[in-house]
Amino acid sequence: MAKTSLDKSKIKILLLEGVHPSAVEHFKANGYTNIEYHAKSLSEEALLEAVKDAHFIGIRSRTHLTEAVFAAASKLVAVGCFCIGTNQVDLQAALARGIPVFNAPYSNTRSVAELVLAEAIMLMRGIPHKSQVCHQGGWIKSANGSYEVRGKKLGIIGYGNIGSQLSVLAESLGMEVLYYDVISKLPLGNARQLDSLEELLAISDVVSLHVPETHSTKWMMAKAQISQMKQGAHLINASRGTVVVIEDLAEALESGHLAGAAIDVFPVEPRGNDDEFISPLRGLDNVILTPHIGGSTMEAQENIGKEVSEKLIRYSDNGTSTFSVNFPEVALPSHPEKHRLLHIHQNIPGVLSEINRVLSENGINISGQYLQTNEKVGYVVVDVDKEYSQQALEAMKQVKGTIRTRVLF
Ligand SMILES: NC(=O)c1ccc[n+]([C@@H]2O[C@H](COP(=O)([O-])OP(=O)(O)OC[C@H]3O[C@@H](n4cnc5c(N)ncnc54)[C@H](O)[C@@H]3O)[C@@H](O)[C@H]2O)c1
Ligand SMILES: O=C(O)[C@H](O)COP(=O)(O)O
User: Fold this and answer.
1) Is residue 302 among the annotated active site residues?
2) What is the pTM of this model?
3) EC number(s) (predicted)?
4) Tens digit of each residue's pLDDT (9 = 90 or more) over 242-281
5) Is 210 in the active site?
6) What is the 130 CA–ligand 1 centroid distance (Å)?
7) Beta strands 176-180 and 13-15: pairing type?
8) 1-103+297-327 with 108-289: one CATH topology?
């Protein structure tokens, strides 16, 4: 007797880090009821245990999905990053196991850009210090060290979705926008791309970082770069904590070389709201410290919850992998009356012809076929008459290079 597509109530969805309830609602509305929900990230040990029987995992920026985690997650079908960054996931380890990773590349862009712009204004007015003094009963009614942002230079490092949106907002306030990016990017408005990071650092009144965490951005703002910044300038980091050497920043703020900073992300962040935040920046009254909430607005989080759960549901129900960050992207139609076979394999020559050969040898009629590959992995989807699906799946499993298979109906 042919096996059935996995019963949805048996599909375990592990959601960590307080992913927005909109995700839970969306999963439930689509028949996925087996949800394990955690308000914070898990310790490494607890994570290894929790992933053992999980079919889908949803995380935010704090949870690291390493080779060891993927090795322990033998049932894992796909990962959802309910955020923009995917640096916390070993994307190659996922790909090698045929696991697509999805994220929400735009849902919190605006939230970050708004916060950064507000911080630029606060820093240029010396508000962190003045506010603190007021809280202590003091009163610094003075214009000294306070400036409008109008006419000042904003240097944006990383002119992607967030950097370019910030650029537009900052220009609307009359700021002069300069940016540095490793690739040539079309300027919006009157913004200007500079050829070197050094030049940007030397002339900007406010420098804001909007790069992903990669080998090239890790510790890219260290003592040497910070000292190239203008005396009295401000640094904003709402990208990733590993982009700035935090001890070097603390030194520049203490010495007065930098007038202020606004930092949202840290090399080491607490696992959840009950854990202590430890940083050399604590206690510096010219620094705005925020607990990695650049993208944490009600609007953004609700949208992210819906967007990423929808991507996972579509992949689970129908095999569509569009917008995956590591996996061949295939957009699939619905498959009424047919069984859909998903075949994920190493991208070596001849796999598709071998699949077609074994299906033909078994006398199986193909009613739809889709293929996409990336550098390492191929994804073939075959729709067949339901009475043949088990036989077809068994035949396809034998093809050399097969990583994993699934049947959907
Ligand atoms: N604080 C938060 O809550 C929060 C929220 C959202 C995103 N983020 C972080 O912000 C990052 C940027 O987000 P995005 O949506 O704008 O990403 P994006 O991919 O659209 O843009 C990143 C830009 O950085 C550029 N870049 C890469 N390496 C560089 C380098 N070495 N020097 C200069 N430029 C470089 C890229 O070419 C690209 O233009 C994310 O990767 C994430 O880590 C943080
Ligand atoms: O990558 C992101 O989108 C941000 O860093 C936000 O991450 P968070 O969901 O953990 O706040």
Assistant:
1) no
2) 0.95
3) 1.1.1.399, 1.1.1.95
4) 999 999 999 999 999 999 999 999 999 998 899 999 999 9
5) no
6) 31
7) unpaired
8) yes
